[in-house]
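hi! just following up on the protien thing from before. the input was this:
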Amino acid sequence: MLVNREEVLNEDGGLGYVESIFKSSNILKTVYFAEAETLYITFSRGHTYLYTGVDLEFYKRFEDAESNGKFFHQHIKNKMPFYKEFTFYPSEVQKLKELIENKLKDDGEQRESESN
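and the predicted 3d structure came back as:
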């Protein structure tokens, strides 16, 4: 489930990159570079891989999927060129997971106060 999405535009106003975080047992974070058609996926254990040849429409389908992990396994894993880039330290993974939980908690509190 998509928790947070931020778009960063180029100087010319075009899409530079999209950074998203997910509430998922498998995927923590993605960074998608539209012009280069590259997608970085950080998994729950901190491993980050780069996938190439990912167009914007495909990335949007991934982001909008009911289960991002299932979409990954069905359409990306072993089907697209990839490179292992780096691994986050366990403390960095924990901070990202806490950020996700806090964002979900804040969103839930905001919805509750709006309904009152």
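The mean pLDDT is 91.
The longest helix spans residues 90-115.
cheers
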